[in-house]
Amino acid sequence: MPENCFYAKPNQAYTIGGIHYASNLSTEKTPEEKGPRLQKKDVHRKRKKGSCPPPCKGARTPFGIVKVKNTVSLNQNTLFKRLYYRGKVEHSPILIMHSMPNGLGYNRFGITVSKKIGKAVKRNKVRRRIYEAFRLYEPSIKKGLDIVIVAKASALEADFERYYRVIGGMIKKAGLFI
Predict the structure, then answer these.
(1) d(CA 153, CA 175)
(2) pTM of the prediction?
(3) pLDDT tens, 28-52?
(4) Which of 28, 79, 117, 149 is most enclosed, with most CB atoms within 10 A?
(5) Is 2.30.130.10 the CATH number for 71-174?
């Protein structure tokens, strides 16, 4: 053991200055342990392979209807600002719609609901109604547009029918129908 090492413990290995030292270590080799007990292949021949049932024969019935969306969510702040300053604007008592061409083969849609309307539950209710009303008009709107709808404070009192009529009227006034 080196003279300048005060912390060396018996039966321990240590390194000082890149030199490896060992003190009072056993020179006997420990016997090797046996490996884990593994079953041989195909021990249980009566069991079926895999946990899944065999594939069905014939045509399969569809699980659900898959709809390809024509509109993508508009979620970048710079795109919203560009629409606010350069887009065509349509006003109504409960909503404002900004729209402009985007040069893509599909539409992008965004909704803005301010905190003036209320807490998150109320804002989400307005957002869901706007989105659903827009979704119903979606197939009849021209492709390649960015559209943002901003909810005014009076939008909270409106029912779905009013959202539907107002959004349809704004789309018609903006000339966005096919």
Answers:
(1) 26
(2) 0.61
(3) 666 677 767 766 666 666 666 667 7
(4) 149
(5) no
